[in-house]
Amino acid sequence: MFYRLFLSVLVALVVALGTVRVWNSLQDYNNEQIARLAESESYAARSQLVRNLERVISALKSAHVFWTTYGQLPRQQWTSDADIEMTKIAGVRTIIWDDPGNNVRFARTADNPVFDFRPSDDQWLAYASLLERARKITQNTMSGPFVDEAGRPFFEIYLVENGTEGGGRLVALVDARECLKNLLMDESPGYAVQVIWKDTLLFSRGEPAEDIPANWSREGQIKSSMGTFWRVVHTPTQELAETFESPSIDFILLLGLIIAVLMATLTFENWRAYSRARAAEVAENSLAKLNRNLEHEIDIRTRELANRNEDLQTITDSVAHDIRNPLSAIAVNVQLLEEKNTLVLDEDSLGILKRIAPAVSQMTAILDRMLDLSRVAHSTFTRKELDMGRLVRKIFGELAENEPPPKVALELADLAKVNADKRLVKILLLNLLSNSIKYTRGKEIRTIGVDCEQKNGVMVYRITDNGIGFSQQSSERMFEAFQRLESSKAIAGIGLGLAIVARVVWRHGGRIWAKGIPGEKAYFYFTLEPEKNESTD
User: Fold this and answer.
1) Element (H or E) spanning 453, and its range?
2) Residue 334 and residue 357 in contact, taking contact as beta carbons nearer than 8 Å
3) pLDDT: is 504 or 303 the higher one?
4) pLDDT digit string (tens) for 314-331?
5) 3/326 Cα distance (integer angstroms)
6) Helix (H, G, I), strand (E, B), or coil: what is residue 64?
7) pLDDT (0 to 100) of residue 271
8) What is d(CA 169, CA 98) in angstroms, rounded to the nearest whole number?
9) Which residues contact 457 (CB under 8 A, 6 or more apart)?
10) What is the pLDDT of residues 421-445, one digit of tens each?
11) Residues 241, 209 contacting (CB under 8 angstroms)
């Protein structure tokens, strides 16, 4: 009896001690896995904070480049992207641009949140000490942290030009709490976060949980492109810490008789938690790397496209302007040469001179059309409600006013109004109506019709004329630049009108197509908005 009692107590003690030992081991392992999760979350948040902080610095650099480029120019010569993204970043409360060499200064503040505000001399004195420090700085620097009268920490960012004491300086005053609150808005939910710079607490969010293992709180440093090091501390809040506590481990201590089952279950659960933590860490690192590469690639491609568009517009304007003047000089000099040498030159020579002027006029027309094509592609697009009937009557009246007989008749139906860009639609109607008028010359009865019809959820406009028409096989290429149909080669033209029309329709998201009957009819159809379904003829 005594032996069985002793054995029972011994077994109970062994099972109890084993259970406590296993419970302690699993508790430590569980804490370690939670610490891994905390480290993964802390690393991801620090990485994202670095990226967000670099976006602020990049935006300030964009402002520096903008003022360096356009600060000395009149406001009307500034580009349309003067309201750059940096102005929308929370926490940047004051931005100053100082270029004493060119006597240029700007300030963007809460009272004057614009890029072209030029402070008065009295207003500029408020920044005297700040500017004095800035003019001594020869490289991009972030200074601070400082504390204002209200006890709020802030830091100063200095961006210099060419790394010398001269040239333009950009100084930004950044409210640390507001900026970091915005940068960490969606990061590390459930964690108390502290950001420290030079032993100064810049930002604090949430209350850390008490009585938690020390390794649940994670601290790491981040470095900005300005060379500053910030400490970031992540600690679970009480609510998150409570979710980490696993009652299954406590049940092991109470239910020692089923320790094997509980150990298997808890080992499986902890292994699964460990795998998820590792997978989440790998996925976060991969996603962060992919996002960095993708953002960099998109930024490069966007800048390249913008630069190419600007270069193309500059080249087009330059060519149209620089070539027109020599062409005008050629035309004038040929006319003077013809007038002064009419009695001297023979008939063949005079014929050569007379052929130069039409060629110059044709080249000038080509330049004008190419410039129109460029403007259609690059102009600012604004939709508003247009009275199509009124536009057609006005443009047709101007075109038909000086037409040789017989008179051109306009058959105009009631046209629906449309939301479109007025300037581009004028170009579209001018080209289509002038083509119809031109190709009806030589007909005894000249008629042009304009009507519309609701089709496929959008309004389809149609312009009809009884001119020379065209074959249906030619309709697909007539909207390409410098394409002229066989039936129209006897009539003056350069083959850019319909290409310009197609660009206008394309910018509106619409369609344009044509149907023709050789020698009898030509029909041009177009829409000025995307169709609401895919069904088309």
Assistant:
1) strand 446-455
2) yes
3) 504
4) 666 666 666 666 777 777
5) 123
6) helix
7) 53
8) 5
9) 531, 532, 533
10) 998 899 899 889 998 999 898 888 9
11) yes
Phi then psi dihedrals of residue 97, to 5 deg: -115, 120
pLDDT, tens digit, for every residue of 247-256?
665 655 556 5
CA atoms of 241 and 215, how far apart (whole Å) = 13
Residue 4, pLDDT > 70, answer: no
Mean pLDDT (the chain) is: 78
- Distance of alpha carbon 394 from alpha carbon 367, whole angstroms: 26
Two tokens, residue 160: 């210099």
Going by their DSSP bridges, the two strands 446-455 and 408-412 should be labelled as parallel
Q: Cα separation of 299 and 307, whole Å?
A: 12
Query: Both tokens of residue 189?
Result: 């939910």
Distance CA 131, CA 528 (A): 54
pLDDT at 527: 94
What is the DSSP code (8-state) at residue 171? E
CA separation for the pair 140, 65 (Å, rounded)? 13
- Residue 25 is encoded by which pair of tokens? 């081991």
Closest residue by Cα to residue 506 from 517, 498, 514: 498
Query: Structure pTM?
Result: 0.42
Residue matched to tokens 């967000």: 52
Among residues 376, 468, 371, 383, the alpha carbon closest in space to that of 417 is found at 383
User: C-alpha distances in angstroms, 318 versus 20, 314, 372?
Assistant: 86, 6, 14
Q: How many residues does the chain have?
A: 537
CA distances from 133 to 203, 204, 417, 500 (A): 26, 30, 61, 56
Q: ∠ CA(495), CA(481), CA(80), 5° rounding? A: 115
User: What is the Cα–Cα distance from 258 to 260, expressed in whole angstroms?
Assistant: 6
